[in-house]
Amino acid sequence: MNRYKKLGWNTFIIGIGSMGSKFMIFLLVPFYTFYLSPSEYGQADILMMTISILIPIVTLSIADGVFRYTMDKASKKQVFSTACMILLIAGTVLILLTPLLRSVPMLQNYYGLFLTLLIVQLWNTLFQQQVRANGKLILYSVSGLLMSGVLLVANVIFLKYYDMGVDGYLYANLLAFAVNTLVLFFGAKLYKLFSFRAVNKMLLRKMLIYSLPLIPNAILWWVMQVSDRYILTFFLGVAANGLYTVAAKIPSLLSMLSSIFFQAWSISAIGEKLKQNDSFFTGVFTLFSCLFFVATEGIMLIVQPFSAILFSSAYHGVWQYVPFLLIAVLLSSFSSFLEVSYMVEKKTKQLLFTSLKGSVINVGLALLLIPTIGILGASIATLAGFLVTWLLRMKQIQFFNQIEFKKMFWMSMGLLITQSVYLSFAGNPNWWVQGMFALGLFVCQSAILVKKFGAFRGSKKVSQEGMVNR
User: Fold this and answer.
1) Is 229 within 8 Å of 29 (Cβ atoms)?
2) Membrane spanning segments where (predicted)?
3) Do residues 90 and 59 touch, judged by C-beta distance below 8 A?
């Protein structure tokens, strides 16, 4: 199968399941803003974000090692069993730490739910990576769709009919993740891969050498994505964090697409051991960047009226925080694309270096700007952090020279950044000005696509003529 077609097929299959669960989360935002106050939503978000950062720490990021070493054709049974042993130990330690969890102010009212949800998500992360590495993408997608349905029904029951607030939000997520985990476990027959005898110390050492640098990398990536919410909560309170959380849900449409593509892209890149100077690598980046430039512009055009329709009146003003967050997600997506190059070469320590510098910039600017200009400062800090990370990765793997159609690419980036500044500070943006930004970007991207597909057709024609001459 053609490499582009195979990547497209994998993206489509993964997208069916992932789009279901991720899009459902987005569609539930109006529901949450109706049944949860800004402070309740902010509290629930902080708890879920805390779980997301604890997962790589308590599991030693072993799930990433499972995916990488299964793709390397190592013994699936040894890889999976070794990872399961790590998770069994991690779960035991977490249960023993229950008294400590009770003493954390943020968790005092939710420690039981929090701990259960954390442990379920540990196993869910491992099972997802194993199923994806095994190539069972249809099961992966079906389980995601089922999870979406459970999440929807559970939220309606716990929030609308029982009015359980933050507890209901957590119960709904727990039920959805539990169902997804069980479907993956039994659907992929993962129980056949586990054996205490298959635990391999030498393999564990290799997997940890790969995965351990991903722990601080995950933490730093999390710092750039959500540390602003903790800083906002500290300086401005949980209600401000609730507003920021809702604002971040709109760019999550873009990050949802990026996440789906990254899962398929990592299968192609690692499976074929692609180098960053491979024509397929650069060609995919060109098409990927075109899609994301246009998608970012499309969301910017509708963000103001969309927010007024989608959110309750208490959240209408959040649209002004969205443009900078959109650019941040765009840069984050570009950074994730390049991350595959480090994974192929197993150079996770170098990956850590880029995330470290980006997170320092992010936190430093957040501490400086949030007390000064409020919620908008968090958006700017996030953008700056991802910009630094992306540029460092571009330099480190020498990808600047690999970008096709450089002039059009950088013009598009400049137009989007300028437009985001205009939208964030204009108050009531002019549609004619918006249209000029959009026209400029669409002209740039159309020119890139015409040149790209023209070159592609030309090379295909030459190849066919060569075969005829033979």
Assistant:
1) no
2) 12-34, 46-67, 79-101, 107-126, 138-162, 168-186, 207-224, 253-271, 283-303, 324-344, 364-388, 431-450
3) yes
DSSP state letter for 200: -
Q: How far from chain centre, in Å, is Cα 466?
A: 43
Of 85, 88, 86, the closest CA to residue 60 belongs to: 86
Q: How far is 295 from 308, CA to CA, in rounded Å?
A: 20
- Assess whether pLDDT exceeds 80 at residue 461: no
Among 242, 154, 240, 228, which Cα is nearest to 380's? 228
pLDDT number for residue 405: 74
- Tokens standing for 419? 């437009």
Q: Which domain holds residue 308?
A: 216-456
Query: Quick check: helix, strand or coil at residue 347?
Result: coil
- Whole-model pTM? 0.76
Residues 179 and 95 in one domain: yes
* 186, 257: one domain: no
**Are 52 and 189 contained in the same domain?**
yes
Query: How many Cβ atoms from other residues are within 10 Å of residue 428's Cβ?
Result: 5
Same domain, 84 and 24: yes
Contact present, 403 and 285 (Cβ < 8 Å): yes
* Cβ-based neighbour number of residue 401 at 10 Å: 9
Q: Are residues 206 and 233 in the same domain?
A: no
pLDDT at 454: 66
Which of 150, 182, 212 marks a domain boundary? 212
Q: In whole angstroms, give the CA distance from residue 151 to residue 133.
A: 25
Q: Is residue 399 part of a domain?
A: yes
